[in-house]
Amino acid sequence: MRTSVLLFLGVASLFAQQGKMDSRLAPLEFLVGEWVGEGGGGPGQGDGGFSFLPDQDGRILIRKNYANYPATRDKPAYSHTDLTVVYPEPGETRLRAIYFDNEGHTIHYTVEPPANGNSARFVSDVSTSQPRYRLTYLKTGNDQLAIRFEIAPPGKEFSTYIEAKAHRIRR
């Protein structure tokens, strides 16, 4: 009985910790949970999903993403995974993020959450020698998102690389 009570209290404490978040992360609360991509399955299209979960006592958000792409005439099947840590810049109200993937990319982002809490834009730092990236999440309904990933070569405008939809399967 004693072990059961301790286990229950430990699990309850874990859920309580996951519920609290730094107030500076509040505009991103609409992203918290586990998400699955919609569509895909055709030639060259993949399937995937991601999660945004509070970590470190709610001081940061961790995004883990995966995408699986089937083989095509030109490429073998492959998988892409990445990890993004979103954090408040110390001493400031702005949010930053750092991204790592299994292809060796590291991207530093400024996170631009608008006041309405229904969208968020991750914009990479300016570089004269590297492409820039912009990742936008737009809440389109309860537990639904539209996602756009854009790339801009140095000195050029952004163009859409990927557009996708996702739905939340767990909060």
Instruction: State the order of secondary-structure elements, H for helix, E for strand.
Output: HEEEEEEEEEE
Instruction: Determine the strand fraction and express it as a percent band.
Output: over 45%
Structural class: mainly beta
Helix content: 10-25%
The top-level CATH class is: Mainly Beta
- The CATH architecture can be given as Beta Barrel
CA-atom Rg in angstroms: 18 Å
CATH H-level superfamily title:
Calycin beta-barrel core domain
Number of domains: 1
Query: Strand tally, please?
Result: 10
What topology does this entry show?
Elements: H1 2-19, E1 33-38, E2 47-55, E3 60-69, E4 78-88, E5 95-101, E6 106-112, E7 119-124, E8 132-141, E9 144-152, E10 159-170
Antiparallel strand pairs: 1-2, 1-10, 2-3, 3-4, 4-5, 5-6, 6-7, 7-8, 8-9, 9-10
Characterization of this structure:
The protein is mainly beta and 171 residues long. It has a single domain (22-170), classed as Lipocalin (Beta Barrel). It is 11% helix and 51% strand. The chain is built from 1 helix and 10 strands, in the order αββββββββββ. The chain has one helix at 2-19; strands spanning 33-38, 47-55, 60-69, 78-88, 95-101, 106-112, 119-124, 132-141, 144-152, 159-170. A hairpin with an 8-residue loop joins strand 3 and strand 4 (78-88). The radius of gyration is 18 Å and the shape is globular. 16% of the residues are buried.
